[in-house]
Amino acid sequence: MLIWIFTCSVIFIIISDSLEGSDGCYYHAWKIPGPFSVPLVGSAFLVTHIILYRIFELVCGKLDSLQTGCAKSWVGSQLYIATMRPTDTEKILTNCLNKSPFYENFNDIMKDTLLTSKVSIWKEHRKMINPSFNSKILNSYHDIFVSYSREMVKFLDDKEGAEQTDFLPVIWEKTVDAALATLTNVKPHVIKERQRMITITVKFEEILIQRFHTFWLLIDFFWKLSNLHKEHKVLCQTAHEIAENIIAEEYKSYESEDRNDDTIESKRFLPNLTKLNRTKQITRDEILEETSFMLMAASETAAITINTVLTILGIYSDIQERVYQELVSVLPNIESSPTQEELNRLDYLERVVKETLRLVPTIPFILRYADEDIKCDPYVFPAGSNLFVPLVLLHRDPEIWPEPEKFDPDRFLPDEVAKRHRCSYIPFSFGARNCIGFKFGMMVVKVMVATILRNYKVLTVGMKSWKDIQWDYMVMLKAKNSRLRFEKRKF
């Protein structure tokens, strides 16, 4: 009896969801190629796991075989349209600023943030936060990034020649501290539980993926009754408690000092927001969510990118040698770390980072919501659809990238870049709602990679090609089987 009631309830909820707001999509959607779908569940019955990446393996498979470069998939009442055409991508990212309902899965931890919020809130917050990421303020972070890079070198000095089963946690610890030291005026050692942010972030992503692996948990009614949701709520509460402690320390720091609001320090991310809070321009809850998001995102994306760059350079020793020779040329003194001016001269290293993010974008997709019909010849992407840009396919399109699976940093020489559409390479998104911290991220990655490689040669154990790397498809792309060994350079 209970099973019968449960089954009927699931069917009723699915039918209700399927009938809600999808009529306007059908006319234009049927013209767009895509996998076969059936009423109520759409194309989801074709996949083993109901998870965004798996669903779009179907769509992306279609994209690979279609000259049109776009395809659709229904998941219940939700229409998803994927495109790998740069012209479509530019239209989507320019005209569709609202995020897909997919991002509502982050609401418990970061509802009204730059990542997830509706356009009206995003515009207000972006205007407030933009000044904290201008070039003058970013340049003031340089010495802080250098100091944490040196801490990584010191760690390696104690582990010379030893294989690391996973070097990512080591990097991540330093990027958490670097994010705290730059985005706030709080000394990292004051926040005793700061390293728990890593555990919380990993577990949060695991639960999110588990939810998408389980069909009935996609329905809010059943999700909120599940043990996973209870665990999820505890994680979110803990993350907010850590962020609240950081904010409290920021206020304490402000009140204990004769703070000049015109200094560089006062214009950093969190000091700037606390100042705006005192003038009622932003609420304490909004600061809490933005702080949770910014610290988690800034530290995780930087750590993953650094780890991926080192893993790939450990595979391609010839490219690593070219990076090293550039470092020797720019930094002849082994004891020195790059100044900001020297960092800007590391052109080949920057091309290596960009080529890494081409092949393996840390954020593997972009999802937007169409508030109105978007004309992308020969199709119309209808209002109410979810528009999906799979960066892995876009960045490996053979029409744009000759030998797309070859690792070649010289693709990013100025003359080569000029030949391509500006939306053919968008690891940090594009348009008004791009990643606010992309310059911050590139800076910390270059400083840390340069400091490590100036002191150590990196070897990737058991791999001959970047294709040997196995990827963990969480919210971000992480190397699962990366084992690095470091050899001290002889001078």
Automatic annotation (TrEMBL):
Keywords carried by this UniProt record: Endoplasmic reticulum, Heme, Iron, Membrane, Metal-binding, Microsome, Monooxygenase, Oxidoreductase, Signal
GO MF assignments: heme binding; iron ion binding; monooxygenase activity; oxidoreductase activity, acting on paired donors, with incorporation or reduction of molecular oxygen
InterPro entries the record matches: Cyt_P450, Cyt_P450_CS, Cyt_P450_E_grp-I, Cyt_P450_sf, Cytochrome_P450_Monoox
Parts forming coiled coils: none
Protein family (similarity comment): Belongs to the cytochrome P450 family.
Membrane topology value: Peripheral membrane protein
Protein name per the record: Cytochrome P450
SUPFAM superfamilies per record: Cytochrome P450
Main location: endoplasmic reticulum
GO cellular component terms listed in the entry, alphabetical order: endoplasmic reticulum membrane
PROSITE patterns hit by this protein: CYTOCHROME_P450
Function (record text): May be involved in the metabolism of insect hormones and in the breakdown of synthetic insecticides.
Signal peptide positions on this chain: 1-21
Location(s) in or outside the cell: Endoplasmic reticulum membrane; Microsome membrane
Gene3D superfamilies the UniProt entry points to: Cytochrome P450
Keyword Metal-binding: yes
Cofactor needs: heme
Annotated binding of heme, by residue: C435
Keyword Iron annotated: yes
Organism: Zophobas morio
